[in-house]
Write a structure and sequence with these properties.
The protein is α/β, with parallel strands linked by helices and 527 residues long. The chain folds into 3 domains: 249 residues, 2-enoyl-CoA Hydratase, Chain A, domain 1, CATH 3.90.226; 198 residues, 2-enoyl-CoA Hydratase, Chain A, domain 1 (Alpha-Beta Complex); 34 residues, no CATH class. Helices cover 39% and strands 17% of the residues. It is built from 20 helices and 17 strands. The strands form 3 sheets. Strands 10, 11, 12, 13, 14, 15, 16 and 17 form an 8-stranded mixed β-sheet that branches. The chain has a 7-stranded mixed β-sheet with strand order 1-2-3-4-5-7-9, with helices on both faces. Helix 12 links the parallel strand 12 and strand 13. The chain starts with a helix and ends in a 17-residue tail after the last helix.
C-alpha cells in the first residue's frame, strides 16, 4: 500500500467519524438543553437507560430525509429524527426505536418511518421484542402524503407483529393525531406524569369546534390516559422509573410466541403454606378486603423484599386486577376481582381490561390464574346503555378461545353470569378450586331467599326472623362449594393455607397441554 493510499483511507475514516459525531449531537446544544429543562431525557439517553450498558448497536445512523420543498433541501436533521437499532435487556436481544424531539421535533418523514418499519420487520424475522419510545410532533408537514403513508406502513407492521413478538411502547412527550395509533396497536403503553400526553384532537381544535377549555395534560396526560381512557397501562413518576419498569415487564414475557417465558427463581419454596391466608377474607360476605394481599402471599416472594407482582392498568377498571407474577419460577398472568372497588363487580371497563389481558397471555404462552370473588355484573342504565352485554361477552369469548393452562380459585363468591364470566369449567378452566368460604349460586342468598321462600316469609309472624332463617337455609343447601363439587363443576374444595402448593402442582400437571382450535381464517370477537 502506498503512502497516498494510506492517506486517502485515513481521510475517509476521519470524515466518517466526523459525520457520526455530528449525528450524535442530535439537535444541537441549545435543543438538548431545552429538552432537559422540560425534565426529559434525550432520545439517546433513553436508549442507554433502557438497555444493558454498552449493548446498543445503531442502525440507519446516517439516514437523511428526501424532502426538497419549502427549503428542506438546506436543512440537516440528524438520523432523520429517530434513533433505531438493537441491544440487550437482561442479556436478551431487543430492537428499539427512539424518536428525537430535539431534531425537527421528532417529526415523522418518509425515511424516519422507513427506519421504524425496518426495525419492526427485523424484529419479526428474528423473533425479538420491540421497544418503542415516542416523542414526536407528528407527521412532518413538508413530506406531505409520504409521511402519512409511512404511518400506515408502521400500523400495518404493528398489526402483523401482534401476538408474534411483544411490543412495548413509552410515550415520553407529545403523541397526537394519527401518531397515537402505533402505540395503540402495540401491547402496552407507558407514560410519565407531567411530560407525556396523547390524544387524537388537541386542546386548540377542541376549543375552536366545541368551545371547551382544557389543557394538554388534563386531556391526554399520563393520569388521564390511564384512569379515564384506559390507554396507558402505567403512569410513572419519571422517565427513569418508566424505562426501568419496561425492563421489568419484559422479564415476565417470552421473546416471541414460539417460546415459553423465562423462568426466574426468587428463592421461594413450592411447598410453602400460610396458615394466616384464610384470615385475610372476612367472614361477613359483604365486607371488603384487598385481593392484592392474597396475591402477595400465594405467589413467589422476592428475597429482596420488592413487590412480587407487576400490575397493569392499576388505576383503570380497579374492580379487576390484571398482573404478572411467578409461580415456582414460571410466569403466570393473574386476573382477580378486587372487592375493595365496586365490590369486585364486573363492568364495562373491567371486561375490556380483563379480556385483552387474557388474549395477550394466550398469545404468548402464559398460564392464567383466576382469583374469584365476584357478586355479579354492575347494574344500572349507564352500564346497559354503554354496552355491558357486548363488553361482558369479550371476557367469555377470551376465556373460551384461550388454549393456555387456566386455573380458577374461587375465594368467596361467584354469582350468576359473573360465575361463568370469571372462567368456570364450562368456558375452559382446566382446574377449579374453591375455598370453604365460597358461595356459588345463581344469585346472592338474600335475593334468592326472597324469591324462593316469599310465601313463607310473608305468612310468618316475625317476617325478618323467618327471612334470616331462609337465607341461611339457602346458603347451607345451595350457596356453598359442596354441591358444585358433587356435580364436578369444582375439582376440589381446598384448605386456603394450601393454595400455593395446590396451584403449583396443578400447573405442573397441565403446563404442556395441547388444544387444537377449529380451522378458520380468524375469529370475530364481540366489540
Amino acid at each position: 500500500m502506498t503512502n497516498e493510499d494510506s492517506r486517502v483511507r485515513e481521510q475517509m475514516l476521519v470524515e466518517l467519524q466526523a459525520r457520526k459525531v455530528k449525528v450524535m449531537e442530535m439537535g444541537g446544544a441549545k435543543a438538548l438543553e431545552k429538552q432537559r429543562k422540560r425534565g426529559k431525557l434525550t432520545a439517546r439517553e433513553r436508549i442507554d437507560k433502557l438497555l444493558d450498558e454498552g449493548t446498543f448497536h445503531e442502525i440507519g445512523m446516517l439516514a437523511k430525509h428526501k424532502s426538497t420543498a419549502f427549503g428542506m433541501d438546506k436543512i440537516e436533521i440528524p438520523a432523520d429524527g429517530v434513533i433505531t437499532g438493537y441491544g440487550k435487556i437482561d442479556g436478551r436481544t431487543v430492537y428499539v426505536f427512539s424518536q428525537d424531539f430535539t431534531s425537527a421535533g421528532g417529526t415523522l418523514s418518509e425515511i424516519h418511518g422507513d427506519k421504524i418499519c425496518n426495525i419492526l420487520d427485523t424484529a419479526m424475522k428474528t423473533g425479538c421484542p420491540v421497544m418503542g419510545i415516542n416523542d414526536s410532533g407528528g407527521a412532518r408537514i413538508q413530506d406531505g402524503v409520504d409521511s402519512l403513508s409511512r404511518y400506515g406502513k408502521i400500523f400495518y407492521r404493528n398489526t402483523k407483529a401482534s401476538g408474534v413478538i411483544p411490543q412495548l411502547c413509552a410515550i415520553l412527550g407529545p403523541c397526537a393525531g394519527g401518531a397515537v395509533y402505533s402505540p395503540a396497536l402495540m401491547d402496552f403503553i407507558f407514560m410519565v406524569k407531567g411530560t407525556s400526553y396523547s390524544f387524537i384532537t388537541g386542546p386548540r381544535v377542541i376549543k375552536a369546534i366545541l368551545g371547551e377549555e382544557i389543557n394538554e395534560l388534563d386531556l391526554g396526560g399520563a393520569d388521564a390516559a390511564q384512569s379515564k381512557a384506559g390507554v396507558a397501562c402505567r403512569s410513572e413518576n419519571s422517565e427513569e422509573e418508566c424505562l426501568q419498569n419496561m425492563r421489568e415487564l419484559l422479564s415476565y414475557l417470552p421473546s416471541n410466541n414460539r417460546e415459553l417465558p423465562p423462568r426466574i427463581e426468587w428463592g421461594d419454596t413450592p411447598d410453602r403454606t400460610d396458615e394466616h391466608l384464610f384470615d385475610i377474607v372476612p367472614v361477613n360476605p359483604r365486607k371488603p378486603y384487598d385481593m392484592h394481599k392474597i396475591i402477595e402471599v400465594v405467589f413467589d416472594r422476592r428475597l429482596d423484599g420488592k413487590k412480587n407482582y407487576f400490575e397493569l392498568f392499576p388505576n383503570f377498571g380497579g374492580n379487576i386486577i390484571t398482573c404478572f407474577a411467578r409461580l415456582n419460577g414460571s410466569t403466570v398472568g393473574i386476573i382477580a376481582n378486587q372487592p375493595m372497588v365496586l365490590a369486585g363487580c364486573l363492568d364495562i371497563n373491567a371486561s375490556d381490561k380483563g379480556s385483552r389481558f387474557i388474549r395477550f397471555c394466550d398469545a404468548f404462552n402464559i398460564p392464567i390464574i383466576n382469583l374469584v370473588d365476584v357478586p355479579g355484573y354492575l347494574p344500572g342504565k349507564d352500564q346497559e346503555w354503554g354496552g355491558i352485554i357486548r363488553h361482558g361477552a369479550k371476557m367469555l369469548y377470551a376465556y373460551s378461545e384461550a388454549t393456555v393452562p387456566k386455573i380458577t380459585v374461587t375465594i368467596r363468591k361467584a354469582y350468576g353470569g359473573s360465575y361463568i364470566g370469571m372462567c368456570s369449567k364450562d368456558v375452559g378452566a382446566d382446574y377449579v378450586f374453591c375455598w370453604p368460604t365460597t358461595e356459588l349460586a345463581v344469585m346472592g342468598a338474600e335475593g334468592a331467599a326472597d324469591i324462593i321462600f316469599r310465601k313463607e316469609i310473608d305468612e310468618a309472624e316475625d317476617r325478618e326472623k323467618k327471612r334470616e332463617e331462609k337465607i341461611e337455609e339457602y346458603r347451607r343447601i345451595f350457596a356453598n362449594p359442596q354441591r358444585a363439587a358433587e356435580h364436578l363443576h369444582v375439582d376440589d374444595v381446598i384448605n386456603p393455607s394450601e393454595t400455593r402448593p395446590r396451584l403449583i402442582s396443578a400447573l405442573g400437571a397441565i403446563i404442556h397441554k395441547q388444544e387444537q382450535a377449529p380451522a378458520k381464517k380468524h375469529d370475530v370477537m364481540p366489540t
